Amino acid sequence: MPKITILPISEQDLQPLISISKKTFDETFRPDNKDEIIDHYLSTSFTEEKMKAQLDNPNSEFFFAYSDKYVAGYLKINISDAQTESMAEDTLEIERIYVDNRYQKQGIGKQLYDKAIERAKNHNIKRIWLGVWEHNHNALAFYDKMGFKHTDSHVFRMGDEAQTDFIMTLDL
User: Fold this and answer.
1) What pLDDT does 82 receive?
2) Count H helices, E strands: the chain?
3) Which residues, given as ranges, of the chain have pLDDT below 50?
4) Whole-number Å distance between alpha carbons of 95 and 3
5) What's the rounded Cα separation, in Å, for the pair 138 and 44?
6) Per the domain annotation, does 144 fall within a domain?
7) What is residue 35's three-state secondary structure?
8) Is 166 contained in some domain?
9) Is residue 156 part of a domain?
10) CB 140 within 8 A of CB 129
11) What is the CATH number of the domain that holds 20?
């Protein structure tokens, strides 16, 4: 089993971040969505300008998971006003945990999750939340195994489609 290292992402990592973001989003959602919707989302959501703005936000943090020297996945967490939904001040959002298909089932998602928990504790966070597409059964099973509870739902717009994300929460 290769050695996994979790390291913070900086602005110098912008291009690898865009690359892994597009790749993992595509792998995760293309099989269950229309190609034109995925293509549009990838071309508009992971631009240099948008990703740089997210990296520059002091209330967001990104981490790469390296398998040996290769980027195998990444984590994005948000606190305060960087969260995608208005939540209590003592909450942290796990916005993204994505692992390249080539590295699935190696515990990388769990290590990224553990990093999110560590960062939440460093910020004195009392509750973690995230949104998971109702049809992303692998992610739903993972978060259920980690102790998250389905507490609400919200709409995630992808192109002209409104999709339902389950809001899942975990009290620390």
Assistant:
1) 94
2) 5, 7
3) none
4) 25
5) 26
6) no
7) helix
8) no
9) no
10) no
11) 3.40.630.30
DSSP string over the chain: ---EEEEE--GGGHHHHHHHHHHHHHHHHGGGS-HHHHHHHHHHHS-HHHHHHHHH-TTEEEEEEEETTEEEEEEEEEEGGGSSS---TTEEEEEEEEE-GGGTTSSHHHHHHHHHHHHHHHTT-SEEEEEEETT-HHHHHHHHHTT-EEEEEEEEEETTEEEEEEEEEEE-
Question: Residue 47: which domain range?
Answer: 4-130
Which tokens in the block code for residue 99? Answer: 């692992």
What's 100's DSSP letter? -
User: What domain count does the chain have?
Assistant: 1
- Which residue(s) pair with 153 in the sheet? 166
Residue 73 placed within a domain: yes
CB 133, CB 165: distance < 8 Å: yes
Asked if residue 7 lies in contact with residue 63, where contact means CB atoms within 8 angstroms, the answer is: yes
Active site residues: 143
Per the listing, tokens 């919200």 go with 154
CA atoms within 13 A on the CB side of 100: 15
pLDDT value of position 1: 63
Nearest alpha-carbon partner for 143 in 105, 113, 104: 113
Residue 150 has phi, psi (to 5 degrees) of -75, 115
Tokens for 12?
């110098």
What tokens were used for 102? 């080539």
**What per-residue confidence (pLDDT) applies to 158?**
84
Q: Is 83 helix (H, G, I), strand (E, B) or coil?
A: coil
